[in-house]
């Protein structure tokens, strides 16, 4: 791990929040992710399942966390099962958590090697009635592979058919969406690394560079600041590529006079940041580009003010739609008739702004959070309006990450990342 060790008090708090929601005589089990194969003996880099990480800080494969708040003995309330290591194994496989390190990282005293899991579980099952299993209920999830968690659930249901099943996911969706101060600090660190990358890019961009050269500048800056890399696949789209919402090829040349839409963020300690900026290849926006840019910026700033405790996600999007409609009228992109005749299910503004404005952000870039429930303090959201105009050869999106406050405007974690036209132009020309 490149990141500094996280204070284990965070994971202790997270577990106690989860356990407070569990039914009497119940056990909850969380599995790590697999290391996914490519072919031959090559694998994808390991990425930990965010739930076991959130609850334990354990950041390695073949790990199981078990919680049993009503266990007959204290040492059975929280347990970890880890891949066995010793000095000899460490020579071949690299450093893995010892039982002592696992305690230091997680605050969990009872640590077994993985091969003891079935035996220990059997005893605990005789004392419990319900098991919480962890299914993926994220609103944007599409999972085609069988995860380690899914394999476990299959095995467990076969083995213990008389137990009642309960769902971990709704509990996690709620507790993970409200961030502890340690988490906000980690997300801030991820945003700060993104800022360094963006400033490096501002002094690097000039006509005729390739989009992937910009990607390379980011990754250089990210890794040298203890990030594993991008929190998500970056979008670096010049000219009309900005109008392909999920453009990730990043293989075209940036032409003088065009804009480049950059949607890129560093991860730090498994926490994401999610930033979008749109900059001019030649270091200067033309009048039309500037007018559209400032319209997007106004929508972003006004939308941000609506992220308050009690706001409903759906209502918020309706209000942002009204702001965007008025900006598009001002830019002459739509007219009054378009608005009067609009389909309420697909309002006129959607022609130029067809995606959502905000999503939860945290351990996952599109983080957990139940969107039908009112917003609460210490939730972290992105704010990312855009205007996409293929007919004019450019698209603009601006995106910051903000924390909802108990009262007043949200706190902008990207407040130091240049966004005003003048500041971007002056940094690109200095
Ligand atoms: Mn985003």
UniProtKB/TrEMBL annotation:
Domain Aminopeptidase P N-terminal: 6-142
Source organism superkingdom: Bacteria
Required co-factors: Mn(2+)
GO terms, biological process: proteolysis
Keywords linked to the UniProt accession: Aminopeptidase, Hydrolase, Manganese, Metal-binding, Protease
Entry-linked SMART domains: AMP_N (SM01011)
Enzyme class: hydrolase
SUPFAM superfamilies: Creatinase/aminopeptidase, Creatinase/prolidase N-terminal domain
Catalytic activity entry: Release of any N-terminal amino acid, including proline, that is linked to proline, even from a dipeptide or tripeptide
InterPro entries in the cross-refs: Aminopep_P_N (IPR007865), Creatin/AminoP/Spt16_N (IPR029149), Creatinase/aminopeptidase-like (IPR036005), Pept_M24 (IPR000994), X-Pro_dipept-like (IPR052433)
EC number: 3.4.11.9
GO molecular function: manganese ion binding; metalloaminopeptidase activity
Entry's family note: Belongs to the peptidase M24B family.
UniProt protein name: Xaa-Pro aminopeptidase
Organism: Flavobacterium gillisiae
Lineage: Bacteria, Pseudomonadati, Bacteroidota, Flavobacteriia, Flavobacteriales
């Amino acid at each position: 791990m490149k990141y500094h060790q996280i204070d284990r008090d965070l994971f202790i708090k997270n577990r106690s929040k989860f356990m407070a929601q569990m039914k009497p005589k119940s056990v909850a089990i969380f599995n790590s992710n697999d290391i996914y194969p490519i072919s031959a003996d090559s694998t994808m880099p390991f990425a930990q399942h965010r739930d076991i990480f959130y609850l334990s800080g354990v950041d390695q494969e073949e790990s199981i966390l078990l919680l049993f708040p009503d266990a007959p003995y204290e040492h059975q309330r929280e347990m970890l099962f880890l891949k066995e290591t010793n000095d000899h194994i460490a020579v071949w496989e690299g450093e893995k958590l010892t039982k002592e390190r696992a305690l230091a990282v997680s605050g969990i005293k009872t640590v077994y090697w993985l091969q003891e899991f079935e035996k220990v579980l059997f005893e605990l099952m005789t004392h419990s009635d319900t098991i919480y299993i962890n299914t993926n209920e994220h609103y944007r999830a599409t999972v085609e592979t069988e995860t380690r968690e899914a394999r476990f659930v299959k095995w467990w249901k076969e083995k213990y058919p008389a137990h009642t099943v309960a769902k971990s996911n709704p509990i996690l969706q709620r507790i993970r969406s409200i961030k502890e101060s340690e988490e906000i600090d980690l997300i801030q660190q991820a945003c700060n690394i993104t800022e360094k990358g963006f400033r490096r890019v501002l002094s690097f961009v000039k006509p005729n560079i390739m989009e992937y050269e910009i990607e390379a500048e980011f990754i250089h800056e990210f890794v040298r600041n203890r990030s594993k890399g991008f929190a998500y696949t970056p979008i670096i789209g010049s000219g009309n590529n900005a109008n392909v919402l999920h453009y990730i090829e990043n293989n075209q040349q940036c032409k003088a006079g065009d804009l480049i839409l950059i949607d890129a963020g560093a991860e730090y300690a498994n926490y994401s940041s999610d930033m979008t900026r749109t900059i001019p290849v030649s270091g200067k926006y033309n009048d039309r580009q500037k007018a559209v840019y400032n319209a997007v910026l106004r929508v972003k700033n006004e939308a941000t003010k609506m992220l308050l405790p009690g706001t409903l996600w759906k209502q918020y999007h309706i209000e942002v739609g009204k702001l965007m409609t008025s900006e598009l009228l001002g830019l002459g992109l739509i007219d009054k008739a378009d608005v009067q005749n609009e389909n309420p299910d697909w309002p006129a503004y959607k022609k130029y702004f067809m995606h959502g404005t905000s999503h939860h952000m945290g351990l996952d870039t599109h983080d957990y959070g139940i969107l039908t429930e009112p917003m609460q303090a210490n939730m972290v959201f992105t704010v990312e309006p855009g205007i996409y105009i293929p007919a004019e050869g450019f698209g603009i999106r601006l995106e910051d990450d903000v924390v909802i406050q108990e009262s007043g405007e949200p706190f902008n974690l990207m407040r130091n990342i240049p966004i005003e036209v003048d500041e971007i132009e002056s940094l690109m020309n200095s």
